[in-house]
Amino acid sequence: MRSFTLIDFVSLFAALRWTIALVVLAIAFGAPLALGLAMGRISRFTGLRWAMAGLIQTIQSVPLLGLLFFFYFGMPVFLGIQVPAILAVTVAYTLYTAAFLGEIWRGGLEAVKQAQWEAGACLGLSAWQQFRHIIAPQALRLSLPPTVGFLVQLIKGTSLASILGFVELARAGQVVSAATFQPLLTYALVAAIYFALCLPLTLWSRSLEARLDGSR
Amino acid sequence: MNFLPLWRYQNQLVDGAIVTLELTVISALAGLLIGVAGALALKGRIAPLRWLVRFYIELFRNTPSLIQIFIVFFVLPTFGLKIPAFEAACVALSLYFGAYSVEIIRAGLDSIPRNQLEAGQCLGLSGWQVFRHIVLPPALRNAYPAVTSQFVLLLLGTSLASQVAADELFHVAGFVESRTYRSFEVYAVICVVYFAMAMGFKALFAIIATAAFRWPRRR
Fold this sequence. Notes:
Helix content of chain A is 82%, strand content 0%. Chain A is mainly alpha-helical.
């Protein structure tokens, strides 16, 4: 047993970079996939629409913790080789991000009126041009507040990687708490760091939403 | 891949699923009570109470549920308040669900235009009658989708209680894994069970919605 020192404080902040790395990885791979899912959800092909809806529903109906364990233990089974833990965790967070962002962005795309597509077609734009120049910018504006809101969920969700042994913020908290026997101080500090990370995003999301409401 | 060794543990898995459902329902009911009380406080006249509720909402919505469970389970005993894992998870998850419920219920109440209340008063309805017949039905319908989807997220979120060794489904999974060494198979089955429960609740909520909210949306 030892007391809580500056070193412990520093180790919490050092672990923060893994939290941020997980968020960046999840967004980097999850966002393009989410865009694909959202476009599939509004596609003309019924089969594609159903498949995408089924995929999103499935991922959203399983605990994030379950997804993490499924891929952590499942990747070697699927691929037949050992994979680094970070790869399995990235796959789980990517699918999680893609499912939630995909559904949010589909909502944004569908909120743009059908007539806008037709207006684009009348101007002689191709389907891609209509999407790129007319629909997407409006949909992006509409779905920005919930997207930022999801970012908060994702940051909080990275704490689950601690359970697989990743030394990110939550895990560093456990380690420090076990070493110092100061759970109150340690977890309060961990919570405060998460809070400091998430609150600005929450407030930003809310102000975006308020601005959107006024412009309608 | 071999799922057969898991077959012997079906009773434990069923028990785990039941504890998960108990945890979900208890936390949801307690959280909804917090939500109603909080929404009333937010609409009330006592400013310090409003600040307190706002602080509570932001605190619990901007920190991970896992850390909240740890704080309730590991920190309360240092104040001499020793509570078992299941109860600790209930407290933490209720507070988490409550923080989201306050906002949902407040938004539901705010969705009723003011002139409808005034119309009710003009018809000579009492305060309670206005609330019961004019505010409550559409407010319930407006809040319903958000509450039910939050409920499903709570159901999935109870898996975090396994980290303080509450005997719910995910914790049972760890036990079965340690006995069978079939890690992937165990967690694949667990995911399917959670999926089935989530889908079951979604279907149930959809049926309740069609039965309960039968009046037309707008004219």
